[in-house]
Fold:
Amino acid sequence: MGTITQAIANNLTTGLGGASGINFRNIIINGDMNIAQRGTSSTSLTTGGYKTVDRFNFGIGTAGTWTITKDSTVPTGQGFASSTKLDCTTANASLSADSELHLHQRIEGQNLQYLKKGTANAESVTLSFWVKSNKTGTYIAEINDGDNSRQISKSYTIDVADTWEKKTITYAGDTTGTLDNDNAISFWLFFWLGAGSDLTSGTLNTSWNSATNANRAVGQVNLADSTSNDFYITGVQLEAGTSASDFEFLPVDVNLARCQRYFVQFGKNQGVEEATGDTYGFGISNDDNLNSFILIPLPVRMRTPPTSITQTGSASDYRIRTYLSDTCTAVPVFSDATLFNVRVVFKNSGHGFGTAVIVQGQIASSSSFIGVNAELWLL
Structure:
């Protein structure tokens, strides 16, 4: 029985808080910052996106320059091994009206139905997390309901510089606006780190209300105002109810599989090793020596069929193999995909096959990877 299936079976036997300790009560995926498929550091950041730790998106607009790392600095004795660190490398002490700086996670509507939002029985949710920064003061954590253009923001305070503090925030249930039961975005959880007047000039929306930008991040300090500033966070948990339970640690294979629903990265030493490289799939070359269509199986069923791949490196980092090994003459490109596999075109102009031939697609360099993306966007 698989790990996830076994965990669910154990939970049915032991009940909430039972011996298994795994109930999937945490709405947040990878809240312990343990999985970082894309890498452990990303530097010189002035634009947003998924940079290091899986499922946590970096949002930025005219708010300095940043380095984000998966860091080993953690609160002592709490069971965490990793945190996300943001380090300001170029400051912006005078934010523009439309400036923004935040970490956020996007959450599927079908994972939120038990909150009963939009009904008289709507559940409160409680957010808990560990945080550390040299920049003390007021910070904002916001839940945004994109299905109904509603939001709620709560403030918390970093009281002591350079000291891990646990924060707990409860948000009342919202009796207005049901959430779509699908695999698109319904909730955003924002951790604000800086915001211009477009987001701070109103009154903080501390109860559920129609989304108004000016009310989203009122009172937020500007973490971008000095290159001395940094920010660490780990142990992010969002759960139904009015109190925080202990952080729910999942086995690493379960945590990885949940992240791979949205993004999978293939690199050297992750496939079937050959003398010339790691094989990621098999396919056919049938168009007179130019393209080899390699079918790569995905480790989990993805959220949606991917529509593109990302890759790094140069053509020489990839190979096509039959009875000999040929270095590619161009980097791989996307062909098509299902929920379960992706077909990638490996290119070489020197095979001279002429007819259909079974070939292997290989990644030959540890500096290159192929990334397959089904992340939540604005759908």
User: Anything to note?
Assistant: The chain has two domains: 26-244, 263-373.
